[in-house]
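Dear support,

I submitted the protein below through the web form. The confirmation email said the job was done, but the results page showed an empty box. After a refresh the structure appeared. I'm attaching both so you can tell me whether what I see now is the final result or a partial one.
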Amino acid sequence: MPKKASPCNVVIKTAKFHPMQSLQHQHQHLILIGMMGSGKTSVGRLLAVSHRLPFIDTDHEIEQRAGSSIPDLFAAQGEAAFREIEHKILTTILQGEERAVISTGGGVVVNGANRDLLWKSGFVVYLKADPETLLGRVSHDTNRPLLKQGDPLQTLTKLLEQRAPFYEHAHLTLQVNRLNCRQIAGRIWAHYSKRH
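What the results page shows now:
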């Protein structure tokens, strides 16, 4: 099922990847991390279109390669199995020779090996938002398996508490509660372009 549309939704083609590609250009990727609803996919698409770069959404890649939606993967195999699939696909994506904008799943940082890969492979940006803002953005999205049980706000708050120490090691942290997609993308590119 497609993710909920956003005000800065744009249509682009996703990049193609080959597992044996070299890592020689890995440092150039622009990588977005953060909680579900923080705007990673929308901002990533906007950055990619604006600067003529390939765009990769790791959740989309997982679904394409597994032939199943993320909620179905969670239901059939559990979160641990999903995280293993996520790690394998992330490794393949980060081997891409061509510089790309990469939007990651919210829980990608819980795996230490993933964190090592991300930080070594590009400029990592944390899109930071409070739980109330996040809930307002994902409350009608049925493609969020971790929010299907219990109180969604409590779940988001707990997940954020668990993940924040990892997120905040990013090269750049942006508080996005009051920013629109174009403002976020502009600030990211201003920092990224200085390094690359």
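Response: this is the final, complete result; the empty box was a page-load delay. DSSP finds seven helices and five strands in the chain.
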